[in-house]
Structures are given as C-alpha cells and as structure tokens.
Amino acid sequence: MLSSVRIKKFLYIKDVEIDLHPKMNVFTGETGVGKSLVIDAITFVLGEKGNYEEEDYVELTFEVDNDYSEDGILVIARQIKNGKSLYYLNGRKVGKSLIQEVSRDLIEVHGQHYSQRLFDKDYHREVYDKYLKIEDKLQEFQQLYIQYQKLKKEYEDIILKQSDRLQKIDFLQFQINELQSANLKEGEKQKLEQEYNYYSNIQTIKESVEFTKALISQENGILQNLSTAVKSISKVSDFEERLSKVLDNLENAKTLIEETYYDLEDFDLDFNQEKLHQIEERLNLINHLERKYGYDEKGLINLLENLQNELETLLHLEDKTPILESQLKQLHSLVVEKANELSNIRKSKVKEFEEEVLNHLKDLAFKSADFKVLIQEKELDRYGIDKVQFLFSGNKGFEPKPLDEIASGGEISRLSLVLKLISKKSVNTMIFDEIDTGIGGITAVSMAKKLKQLSKDFQIILITHLPQIAVIGDKHFYIDKQEENGKTRAVIKQLTQDERIKEIARMLSGIVNEDSINLAKELLKQGEVWTR
User: Fold this and answer.
1) Per-residue confidence (pLDDT) for residue 115, from 0 to 100
2) What pLDDT is attached to residue 271?
C-alpha cells in the first residue's frame, strides 16, 4: 500500500507529508481550491507529463512484498532539476521506465486527466479472467505453451541450420583439411625459428670461425706467440719460484688454444640452402594460419578439435529432425486443445459478466447503460486464442463502443470501480478522481457503499465533492488555499472528528450552523450503517 506522500515542493504545495490509511482515504475542499493537486503530485512521481516547476520534488513510500525491497519499504521519488526529471528508487537514481514498471502493480489512477489501463485490451482480458477465476487453468496452459515455444524454437533452429547445413559442412571440411594438412605440433614454431636463425646466419658464422683459426695459427699468431712465451719463461723459471706458476699457466693456455683450434677445424659448416628454404616455407605456413584464424600455434591445435566436433554435430543433425517434428505436432495439438478449453470458458460466461456489470452500473446512475464483452479469435499466444475487448455506452440508443472512444472521465472512473468490484483485480492502491461527477442522492449512497466494499480489498484514495462519499473515509483530509507573503499556498490537513463534522456540514448546505452540523452527524451515523 501507499503509506505516505511527502511533497517537498509541487506547484503551490510545500513541505507537506500525508500519512495514508490502508483502507479508505477521502480528500475534500472548496470548489476551485485544487483538490486534484494531491493526485497530480502522485502521478508526477509515476512519470506523468506536465508543466512542472524547477525543484518540484515528491516522494511516495510504499509498504510492499516484492523483489525491489528487502525490508518491505519501497520509496520512489521524482525531482525537477535544471529543467530535467530525475527519478529515484530507494535513494538510487534510476530511469523513468523502471519507476513505471515498479509502480504498475502497486497503484492505479482513474480520472479524466490521466492515462488509464482500462484502455488496454490486454487489461480487459486480465480483468475478465480474474472474474472467471481461471488462474490455475491459465497457468497450466502457459506452462504447456512455454514448452511448446521452446520446442518450436529448437525445431526452427535445426531447420534453419539445415538450410545452410551443406554449405556449413563444406566450409568446416575445408578448414579442417587446411589445419590437418598443416600437421601442427605444439612447440614446433619455436624450434623452427631457432633453426632459421642458424641457417640464415651460417655465412657469418663461417667467416668468424675462419678468422679465429687464422688468428691462432698464422705467423706471429696467438699459438706461435704463446710458444715463444713458454720457451722464454722456462729458461728462467728455475731461478724464481713464482715464475713456475706463470709457466704452468702459459703451458695450459697453449694447450687450450691448440684444442680450440682443433675444435674449429672439426666444425661442420655445411650450408644447406634447401633446408633453409623448407624452414622458411614451414614458418610462412604457420604464420599465415595464425593470421587467418586469429590464434597462436596452440590455439590452432584446439581450434581443429572444436571444428571437428562442430562438423560431427552437423553431420548428425538430420537424425533429430523427425523426432522433434513429431513431438512438436503432439504438443501443438495439446496446446490448442487447452486454448480452446479456455476460450469455451470465456465465451460461456459473457452474458453473466455483462449482466453483473450492468446491475452495478444501474446502481451508479447508469440506468440506460449498455456493456458488452467482445471475444474475437486471434493468433495463439501465452494467453490463448482470445482477444477480449469491453464495449460501453452510457446513453440509451447508442451502440456500445471501445472504451478509448468514451470521452467522460466520470464514466470511465465508475466503470473502473464496477470492474474492480466484480473481478478483484490485483493491485494495491486505487486512486479515483471525479468518480462522483454527475450523481447525487441515492446514487451517491450506492457509490459510497461500493467504494467501501472495494476498500476491504484495496487501499482507496479519492477526491470527492459529495458528503455521502466523504463520510465513508477512514481518514479525511481537507485541502485549502492560503495567501502567504503575497503567494498562494495549498494547505492539506487531516481532520479531527469535530473538524470532519464541520466539513460534512459545509458540503451538505454550504454553511456551517447548528442545523447543518446535526445533519452532518446524522449522515456520519448513516455512513457507518451503509458500510457494515
């Protein structure tokens, strides 16, 4: 339910908080005072378009049991800032569409100036099905329908795949053959790159080896100079003990250089141009495949396995088609059967529903009204094969028409009231504006009784100018205008019992005196009797 409305600023309302009753809330006030401002403030939060002012801010607090709140409290708000609308859900900035989605099943506004779900033909079916109490049958049908849609999609996907199946198979086989013929092995590329570096630099290696051999073996080369040094030191090493170690080092160096020379002599530097060409071709192939498929060497090996699996699946697709086709036909027959059952129930209760609506409408001053339920066949969907549409005429001699062609907000509001009464359509809060337009006397009493009956299942917020309806409120709010610093300001207050008696007296006779107060007290007593 809507527990409170906090208006920080909205047009000429400022700093007002309205704590609402979970059942019946009535708002009254002098003619021209702007009683609908409260409803305007609520619809402002719900996303209604209008000429709003900078810094307008309204906040609605709901007590809920849904996924949008963990603690059972849901706060939605809207603010006008820098000419733009800002929406908030539990203090978090959100989009308008989310606010409308959240509030859709929480609150409905019925009145001449507001968009109404009653114009939505899907809503007609919801209301009618609720009246018929076919929720279980509808749920059973929808479960079957979901299974049917899932199987249908699976079947259509296979048919679609089969339409380009051969082309896809050819393409996969080409890719697989290309990768298989490459015979890729993990780590091969790194080894090839090392070999390529060797063979492509073999001439440089050869030149370095020959140059080093020459340095060692040539006249006055390293080896000859070392031999000369050994001879020179050996002549004097006996005279100086420390030179013995020097001699050892020189002899070791001479031996190491000789061994190095022999190693270089044995160095195999055969240059194989064909081998280098083969390595280049292999590397070019691997690099080409990596660029083409967007994978490295290891990724290409995994890709080949995946492509082989995909090809295997495609090659066996047609095996499943006849089975799915048979299952789909059987399930479609069952879904159509259940849809026809729903349709038969809907059609069988049309007259009963029409008569019940008309009986309620007659109590609300629609003596010559006509109401029809039009059920037409449509393409199968999750609600069956029926398009349900309500038609209405408030005057004798006029054919019933679709509800969006009815101009009167009062007619729509009263029809909404009747449909709520007989369908118990799930929504938490209902707001009525101008529901009592054009009625009075005994009709007003009938409407008061119906509204009170409705408030047993829903929270009701309504603007009224009729005392017969005002007396049924569990909370009674009064809206007035005051001048403050040369500016008009709206004042909204909850009436005490004494204040309420005076307001009912004013509504009855236009003045507050002893006679009108006595009449007001009597009407309040009668109101208690009407609503038992």
Assistant:
1) 46
2) 63
Whether the Cβ atoms of residue 450 and residue 422 lie closer than 8 Å to each other:
no
Q: Per-domain residue ranges for the chain? A: 1-112+408-496, 179-315
What pLDDT does 432 receive?
A: 87
Residues 6+ apart with CB under 8 A from 264: 209, 212, 213, 216
350 within 8 A of 305, measured Cβ to Cβ: no
449 is written with which tokens?
């009784």
| Cα–Cα distances in angstroms (integers) from residue 97 to residues 68, 100, 480, in the given order | 14, 5, 34
DSSP state of 220: T
Q: Considering the domain delimited by 1-112+408-496, tell me its CATH architecture.
A: 3-Layer(aba) Sandwich (3.40)
**CA 515 – CA 215 distance, rounded (Å):** 137
Burial class (CB in 10 A: 0-12, 13-18, 19+), 416: buried
What sign for the dihedral angle of Cα 411, 413, 415, 418? Answer: negative
The CA distance from 269 to 209, in Å, is 9
CB 336 within 8 A of CB 114: no
Please tell me what DSSP assigns to residue 117: G
Q: Mean pLDDT per segment of 10 residues, for the chain of length 532 residues? A: 94 92 93 83 91 93 80 92 94 93 86 64 90 93 96 86 79 93 90 84 80 84 86 83 85 89 77 80 91 91 93 78 90 96 96 94 85 95 95 88 77 82 78 79 87 90 92 94 83 94 93 93 88 66
Please check whether residue 21 is in contact with residue 475, taking contact to mean a CB–CB distance below 8 angstroms.
yes
What does the alpha-carbon distance between residue 137 and residue 144 come to, in Å, rounded to a whole number?
A: 11
CA angle, 86 then 89 then 90, to 5°: 125
From the number of C-beta atoms within 10 Å of its C-beta (0-12, 13-18, 19+), residue 228 rates as exposed
Q: Is the dihedral of CA 243, 249, 251, 254 positive or negative?
A: negative
**Residue 61 and residue 237: Cα distance in Å, rounded?**
109
Burial class (CB in 10 A: 0-12, 13-18, 19+), 14: middle
Q: How far is CA 168 from the centre of its chain?
A: 35
Distance CA 507, CA 468 (A): 9
Assign 485 to helix, strand or coil.
coil
Tokens (6 digits) for 455: 């408030």
Contact residues for 47 (Cβ-Cβ < 8 A; gap 6+): 78, 87, 96, 99, 100
pTM value is 0.62
Query: Cα(71)–Cα(221) distance, rounded to whole angstroms?
Result: 96
